[in-house]
Amino acid sequence: MKELKYEFYIGGTPEQVWAALVTPESTKQIYYGSVIRSSYKEGDPLEYIGPGAEGAETVHVYGTVLEHTPNKALRFTHKVGPSYLKGGRAFESRISWLLEPVGGCTKLTLIHDEWDSADPSYAASDSAWWQILSNTKTLVETGRTLDFGSWE
Questions:
Q1: At a CB cut-off of 8 Å and minimum separation 6, what does 98 contact?
Q2: pTM of this prediction?
Q3: φ/ψ of residue 22, rounded to 5
Q4: Which residue, of 69, 107, 112, 147, is most buried by count of CB atoms within 10 Å of its CB?
Q5: In the prediction, which pLDDT does 78 show?
Q6: Tens of pLDDT along 44-56?
Q7: Nearest by Cα to 47 from 23, 67, 64
Q8: CATH number at residue 17
Q9: Within a domain: 149
Q10: How many domains does the chain have?
Q11: Residue 148 domain-assigned?
């Protein structure tokens, strides 16, 4: 499968964009109530946990931290949580968040790659990333997120 790659320019510093990507206050807004649980040490687990099919502590995504360089890069493996599998296999892919200062703004690049050709979450990821990235940009620039309605 083709890698999913998106580049956004955000009116904020790399520190502001980084905070939007990793702090609980921001991830709750961007990821519809989910927070990241991780030590951010390479090799340690990373989970996006929040309200969902299994209650308030639903694991939506989980993986392993591959790289953590504050304000520059976060890479981790990606698997969908158990409630999304419907008895199927948990395929692994990779997510890379890359930040780079450009003038008075930040270039945010998201690369979601290393897909298994049988992974059924590819299409949903391609659709969801646009909303997540738009929410990230809007949150950094305005202090609020967009109203996409319900995900249910």
A1: 72, 73, 108, 109, 110, 111
A2: 0.92
A3: -125, -20
A4: 112
A5: 97
A6: 999 999 999 999 9
A7: 64
A8: 3.30.530.20
A9: no
A10: 1
A11: no
